[in-house]
Amino acid sequence: MMAHEFKLLRRILKERSGIDLNEDKMDLVEAKLRPILKEYDFPSIAHLTLALMKPDNDHLRSRVAQTIAVLESYFFRDKAPFAYFTETMLPRLMERRAASRRIRIWCAASSTGQEPYSLAMLLSEEGRKLDGWNVEIVATDFSEEALRKARAGLYSQFEVQRGLPVSMLVKFFNKSGNGWQIKPEARDRVAFREHNLLNDCQELGRFDIIFCRNVLIYFDEQLKTAVLGRLARSWRRMAIWCSARRRAPPACRRTSWRCRSGIMACSV
């Protein structure tokens, strides 16, 4: 891939997703685009970039951005946020929501679904404690391909081996060919919706807990602040923000924030 070709792809990616890749990701981008070359019958990256420059190729630009932007995900990634969710946030919310018996959770930039399904399995593990409760998990991503995979809930042997305890694999998955299919008990707890973090999120409603992880590190500071500000306006009284950020954005400073083990949590 030539430098000017990568520059164009990088610009399209940032415009469509907010992600700003360094030049050392050139080989990764080229590898991710191979299925696009095959799908559209382009002989090379050069032919693809020429097509991207045509004003009537908006759909292709979106497809390219979505393909490059699909981020790595795996079950129970980093562990600490999930332990904090189970041990601290969920019990506290159950106390505060005892009257309505309803909790809403948002997994933003959920990629191929491992994060929301991890939460769904943890909720199932709570058993009868949640009888009579409506706990809704809304998982969003801007990539159509990632959402298709997430909704299908079908993962390879390699994917389920990354972070998923064997006991949960046996309990919540069925063997399906060379892969594993998540059971309805966990899959039906998650509603997947298309949403781009660059856009307003009011149509999603308000949430008690928000997970936004491993995506903000690809945004510049101005965009991070804008995205976190929008997310802040979508939570009710408690939230988890899981990111590399170590201080609250200006829109959130009216609350009491603390950071521990990569978890930014707030409560009022």
Radius of gyration: 20 Å
Distance between the terminal alpha carbons, to the nearest Å?
51 Å
Q: Provide mean pLDDT, rounded.
A: 85
Helix/strand-derived category reads alpha/beta
Largest sheet entry:
4 strands, parallel
Helix amount: 40-55%
Question: What's the number of helices?
Answer: 12
Shape: globular
- Count of extended strands: 10
Task: Enumerate the spans where pLDDT stays under 50 for 5 or more consecutive residues.
Answer: 242-246, 251-268
Oligomer: single chain
Q: What portion of residues belong to β-strands?
A: 15-25%
Q: What's the arrangement of strands in the largest beta sheet?
A: 6-2-1-7
Series of H and E elements: HHHHHHEHEHEHHEEHEEHEEE
Report on this structure.
The chain is α/β, with parallel strands linked by helices. Helix content is 43%, strand content 19%. The chain has twelve helices and ten strands. A hairpin with a 2-residue loop joins strand 9 (256-260) and strand 10 (263-267). Helix 1 (3-17) packs across helix 5 (58-69). The longest helix has 17 residues, at 80-96. The chain is globular, with a radius of gyration of 20 Å.
Give a quick summary of the entry:
By secondary structure, the chain is α/β, with parallel strands linked by helices. 43% of the residues lie in helices and 19% in strands.
